[in-house]
Amino acid sequence: MSPASARSASEPSSSFPPPAVTPAQATSLRADLAESGWGVEAVAALLGEAADAALRREIRLPALRAVRAALAAGSAPSPVAVLTALFMLGEPVPATALDAALPRTAAAGAAAIGLVGEPDGAGYVRARVDLRPHEAVDDAGEVRWWVASDLGELVTGRALAPDHVLGVGGAGLTLAGLTPRTPVHAALDLGCGCGIQTLYLLRHAEYVVATDISARALAFTAFNAALAGVSVAGAPDVGTESVAGSESGSDSGAGRLELLRGSLLEPVAGRRFDLIVSNPPFVITPPAVREAGLPLMEYRDAGGPILPGLVTGLGEHLEPGATAVMLGNWEHRGTASWREVVAAWLPEGLDAWILERELQDPVEYATMWLRDGGLTPERDPEAFDAALEAWIDDFEARDVRGVGFGYLIVHRPRRPREPWRLLEEVTTSGQGVLGPHVAEVLEVRERLAGLDDEAVADLRPLLAPDVTEERHLIPGAAEPTVILLRQGGGLGRTLQASTAVAALAGVADGELSVGQVASAIAALSELNAADAAALRAEMVEATRHLLTTGFLRPGK
Are residues 219 and 239 in the same domain? Predict the structure, then answer.
């Protein structure tokens, strides 16, 4: 097979219509992809460790070398090599090779769907979309999908178009991992993009609404849902406001997916949900930056600060006991506290857990988003410098010292009560996804909100199975100088514990109450009544903290 290595001048990704598929076409394509063996592990094996890692860093050449070698190795290249070359790396492949890789769909069917163009004079086809496997394991079992999005600048060699539909990236995976997977009735994917959050929501929600301001994004979501086994009645275009669908082969799944076009919460006015997830367009691109040549990207740029209004508006759309999970950023201005700024966004009566996971300086932040949009100093140094300078000027004028990135988790109590608010900086991470930890924390806090100190003292907690203890002693000393409790999962927190708190953790097996442990320690230490009462209060307060951070579980 000829490598056909030279890339022709590529059009912006939005120059091609989004793919559209009938239920029959989706069924055939899904069967072809499943039988092809084209999965995450197969791609990694094809590319090799170094090339696979380089591709994840957006370095294309090593992967190209690997697939070209595989395509040239024989007259009948593997479907994995053909599909990886075509859809992930943008290499043209013979139509006959695509026929063999996707025998039911074939090149003609792929062209009819909008995945590839028509064969050129030499019989080669080029991808019109980025299509790649996505695999994961969650509480509902194994996930195996193929997700389409617009071709990226790594393939096109050009800056992204304003209506570019992003594929499954780091932020999308972060949000998917952060989201609790507790079964719910109705869920909302706010700003669905390519639809990856929608696909995950369909695994544990009876009904899902996905919204986006972009008709192109809704079309990709409709396609990806159909390819994953959700039959969608048509693909939304500029004039289409909603699309309903159901899981194929499920009599009870009719109407499980609804796609709505509109800005932020406007399409769901008056409606409430049990779960809302969103990676909103939170990037604030100053007008001067746009004037310097950086267009607004629909998937990330709001053109102004939207998070304050969006977060505030969430309260009208959450059912009792419901949760909203979002990604976002916020500015650190002068000497002001970012916590005060973000706290002002929070709706009345709702619990909130805000975590700052990373802090970037202004230049780092601006450079990241310039590169994200395909504007690089290597490709266009003059335009890059002009845009960067405009961004820095804006930050300096408003005294922005840094930008925090993190998570916003908002929860409506099941019953009216005084809400709890926690805004913290946590940069550590434990093993595994955070969704189960978030669900556990919210459930524990809901329970503790109704318990006074005596009720907490009556709890019989259990030590979480991922917690370990670390003791530091001066050589020859009988007692440790430092006792650390370490969390293996969740946020991977480390807690310095007193001897009494460490003792509580050590005996937390669900049999002894907090009050019993406190009384035993007081007796062994021969404390007077006042000191014993102080110890009991300390251990009750420590129990609340250990429960809400995941070191302990409530038990009975």
Answer: yes
Q: How many separate domains does the chain show?
A: 3
> What is the 3-state secondary structure of 101-160?
HCCCCHHHHHHHHCCECCCCCCCEECECCEEEEEEEEECCEEEEEEEEECCCHHHHCCCC
The enclosing domain of 432 has a CATH number of 3.40.50.150
CA torsion 329-332-333-336 (nearest 10°) is 120
Question: What's the confidence (pLDDT) of residue 340?
Answer: 94
Same domain, yes or no: 222 and 344: yes
pLDDT by residue (tens digit) across 352-390?
Answer: 999 999 999 999 999 998 888 777 888 888 888 988 999
pTM of the prediction?
A: 0.90
Answer yes or no: do 210 and 304 share one domain: yes
DSSP 475-544: TT-SS-SEEEEEESSTT--EEE--HHHHHHHHH-BSSS-HHHHHHHHHHHTT--HHHHHHHHHHHHHHHH
Q: Are residues 306 and 331 in the same domain?
A: yes
Residue 143 in any domain: the answer is no
The angle formed by the CA atoms of residues 76, 79 and 82, to the nearest 5 degrees, is: 85
DSSP-derived letter for residue 301 is: B
Name the token pair of 534: 């102080």
For residue 451, what is the DSSP state?
Answer: -
Tallying the residues shown for the chain, one arrives at 556
